[in-house]
Every structure is written in structure tokens, then in C-alpha cells.
Amino acid sequence: QAQVVESGGGLVQPGGSLRLSCAASGSMYRLPVMAWYRQAPGKQRELVALSRASGISNIADSVKGRFTISRDNVNNTLYLHMNSLKPEDTAVYYCRVEYTWGQGTQVTVSS
Q1: 102: pLDDT strictly greater than 80
Q2: 8-state DSSP, 64
Q3: Looking at residue 91, what is its pLDDT?
Q4: pLDDT (average), residues 67-95
Q5: Rounded mean pLDDT of the chain?
Q6: Positive or negative: CA dihedral 51, 40, 85, 24
Q7: I need a surface site. Which of 34, 71, 102, 104 has the fewest CB within 10 A?
Q8: Measured between alpha carbons, how far is 62 from 44 in angstroms, rounded to an integer?
Q9: Alpha carbon 38 to chain centroid distance?
């Protein structure tokens, strides 16, 4: 039974940057698949980026070139580095570690 806690959300201006963190603990696969999702009001929850223990990652087309995903396999921590943020990036960002979801962290991009 894993526990997943996101942090790092907040208010940022368009064009700004933000780093989200996802700390996983408890019982889980040693090298789990970890991913970031987001959900904006009125929109479906979408996969933003996925990271495998090997370092191979998948980035959604909507954020490709602006967001990068990384992980610390020793500490089971996942990061989402968000650059050149746009208002349309505003959403609740969720971390998923295998099949356990975090509570989400709000990211608001606004002037």
C-alpha cells in the first residue's frame, strides 16, 4: 500500500516556471511506473507525462518542449519541471504511482 503526496503547486505568471514534486512511500514496487496527470474544470483528466524506472519518459503533445519529467529512484520521488507556462496549463495536477493516486496540487497560471 503506497502513499503519494504532491507538492509545489501554486500561482505563477504566464511564461513562468514551476516544479512539482511527488513523494511516494510505503509498500510498492521498487521501481514503479510514475506519472503526472492533470484535470482542468470541464475537461477530462489527461496524462501529462509518464516516467519509467529506466529513465524513458513519455510527454503529452500539449506540453512537449515545455515540460520535462524526472525521477529519483533512490527516494521514489517524481518531478515535473514546467517551463513557459500558459494559462491553459491551469489545472489540478495529480501524481500516480503504479495504481495509487495523490491528492493533487493546484497549478494556476495567471497574470
Answers
A1: yes
A2: B
A3: 98
A4: 96
A5: 95
A6: negative
A7: 104
A8: 14
A9: 8
Say whether pLDDT at 17 is over 90: yes
Longest distance between any two alpha carbons in the chain, whole Å:
41
Grid coordinates standing for 32? Answer: 514503479
pLDDT tens column, 45-80: 999 999 998 889 999 999 999 999 999 988 899 999
Give ∠ CA 55-61-66 in degrees, rounded to 5.
70
Is-contact 98 33, C-beta < 8 A?
Answer: yes
User: What beta strand segments (E) does 1-111 contain?
Assistant: 2-7, 10-12, 18-26, 34-39, 46-51, 57-59, 67-72, 77-82, 91-97, 100-101, 105-109
Q: At 107, is the secondary structure helix, strand, or coil?
A: strand
